[in-house]
Amino acid sequence: MRLSSPALFLLSFLLLYIVQRPTFATQKSYVVYLGAHSHGPELSSVDINRITESHYEFLGSFLASLDVAKESIFYSYTRHINGFAATLDDQVAAEIAKHPKVVSVFLNKGRKLHTTRSWDFIMELNHVGSNPSSSIWKKARYGEDTIIGNLDTGVWPKSRSFSDEKLGPIPSKWKGICQNDTDSGFHCNRKLIGARYFNKGYASVVGPLNSSFNTPRDNDGHGTHTLSTAGGNFVSGASVFGFGKGTARGGSPKARVAAYKVCWPPVGGNECFDADIVAAFDMAIHDGVDVLSVSLGGQPTFFFNDSVAIGSFHAVKHGIVVICSAGNSGPGAGTLSNFAPWQITVGASTMDREFNSYVILGNKVQLKGQSLSSTALPSNKFYPLISAADAKAANVSAEEAVFLVCLRGQNARVDKGLQAQFAGALGMILANNEINGNEITADAHVLPATHVNFTNGVSIFTYINRTKSPKACITRVTTLLGTKPAPFMAAFSSKGPSTITPEILKPDITAPGVNVIAAYTEAQGPTNQIFDKRRVKFNSVSGTSMSCPHVSGIAGLLKTLHPTWSPAAIKSAIMTTATILDNNGEPVMNASYFKATPFSYGAGHVRPNSAMDPGLVYDLPVNDYLNFICALGYNETLVSIFSDDPYNCPKPPISLTNLNYPSITVPKLSHSITVTRKLKNVGSPGTYRADVQEPSGISVIVKPTSMKFKKVGEEKTFYVTLKVKEAKAAEDYVFGNLIWSDEKHYVRSPIVVKTA
């Protein structure tokens, strides 16, 4: 369900405010986080009721009334995450936060889905090295019996991507449900083995919801797209209006999948609320997922006030790999979300497939664009060409058949096409502004249209301004594979450094996130605009929301192939085998065709084949993350509650740079520093030798320079000393690499340094 009338919603909101003013003015919804539960994995209904009652009693002690506490609490987190969500006065929330058993109290804030939509693994895992070879897929049994969960807008269960054809029984470890109590038409199967919805946090902000919200069904498209990218089954003949036709399949096409609907129609630009996110993580851990894909995020905040960081920590503690999108706030520095070291954070880059539609100007100049318009005009017929600004100034009438040239920005890309159509235009050329550079999105426009990069846009506007009667034609869309250069970073992809913990390089990795074709809801048109009455079974969407499930699918394969590997080992395998070269053999570039850095792509562009056999991994037990949190200044009592295991902070605290991470980042290097890392052998015996590509102005010394591994599981420690040679050369961040190799495996870690 979408709020089709902003005016009607505003009126309803004002009425609600007037009716409830005495409480609404002073109360907000909060999450009260109490750490981890100490009970065992098997819970009875009696146990759950006991925990819920303890939450009522705890809150009642602050409200002086058990009945008021019961009315205030709308979630009691009872499985693995301990806490509750409630409507509270600010003063009461502040008092609760002082209690020694409380880790944190934070507002039930809203978060965004990380898709650019048509606004501003094909599931074959696409191209440019992101497509596992058939032998690797077979060896990993296509991710069979791995369970991938997805926190998103739910799922469209009738999509062929969720067919259970040729799948065996549901894994016995599965404890989840198909929550279809109010939606009798929603069915799960041996592929889509579970679905739940969480909307109480959303309702606490927007007010009471009608029964149409009580379903895990995807009426938006985002959740279906991301879940099918991660684990969609084989579907032959998939395409968008006949373009990009092929066999669709997720990264782990035989994995079982489960949907956790936490995102709803936007309110104030936010769709997914913290209280619902914590509830979904708690149930997903209980249900038995192996991988969690989370294509959403919010503003950077400290870990104990971040629902995704809290939920993902508890998931990782239980052996679940959590993959998160970096965000779509690029290309500025320090714009990413989801920066916890226990998460795999994914940026977005292009692939080597284009949906080309050329603009041919009256002077015969051809300029490449991209589109997925479902309609076309004769390719050899020219029409008058006018800029949107000139059309507005000249008050061009609807009777004039023209091509309108619009500049990207301010409103939705497809909405510009609609407005052009309303103005009487036969077609539209959408031109990038400078900040978007060469990032082109193929949208399913409602009229013949094409999207050109900044340089080509400048050429078109120059032609219009210098020509008495400018004219142009737009060619029909054609699908082209093997395009170069690819990949390059999407302009929208959020960048590091992390504003909270700059000692941890984020994002960790990049994957295809532009013009990704995957399954879609049939409750919306491909543009998600009210005016769009078309329906598609597959759609092309862009965003770090789309790159995230590519890595989730790869994690599913790794889980099947290496079931004993920890989430940290899987992250290491993905990072250390990535590439920083495009298909021209040149360094990966950004959307303006300048050399990109690890703050855009992390360790590089994902390579699934290599990740299956990384040779060595940087492993991390959960206690190492606790040491990291202690080093940030959190007190020992809170950290113990957080983990619910006996724990003492190291004395003195560890250096943040010494977390055994697959990258090395020193944001304030003064003179010199020695960092420690440990590698574990997960391959055949061999001798690995270190090779260093030094950052400019920094000397790097590795000791020892070689390490001999005799057996699987053997671990060896090494030390990296970084010393300032030329302080001015490293006043801004500089970048290098450390590579351990036995001539078969190349275990590469980025080195990121800035002088103090």
From TrEMBL:
Keyword Transit peptide found: no
Physiological role: Required for arbuscular mycorrhiza (AM) development during AM symbiosis with AM fungi (e.g. Glomeromycota intraradices).
Signal peptide (residue range): 1-25
Main location: secreted
All copies of domain Inhibitor I9, residue ranges: 29-114
Gene Ontology cellular-component annotations: apoplast
Coiled-coil annotated residue ranges, if any: none
Protein name: Subtilisin-like protease SBT5.3
InterPro entries given in the database record: PA_domain, Peptidase_S8/S53_dom, Peptidase_S8/S53_dom_sf, Peptidase_S8_Ser-AS, Peptidase_S8_subtilisin-rel, Peptidases_S8_3, S8pro/Inhibitor_I9, S8pro/Inhibitor_I9_sf
UniProt record similarity statement: Belongs to the peptidase S8 family.
Occurrences of domain Peptidase S8/S53 (ranges): 143-587
Any GO MF annotation of the entry: serine-type endopeptidase activity
Keyword tags: Apoplast, Hydrolase, Protease, Secreted, Serine protease, Signal
A single GO BP: response to symbiotic fungus
Subcellular location: Secreted, Extracellular space, Apoplast
Domain PA: 383-459
Segments forming domain Subtilisin-like protease fibronectin type-III: 658-753
Active site annotation, chain numbering: 152 (charge relay system), 222 (charge relay system), 545 (charge relay system)
Keyword Protease in record: yes
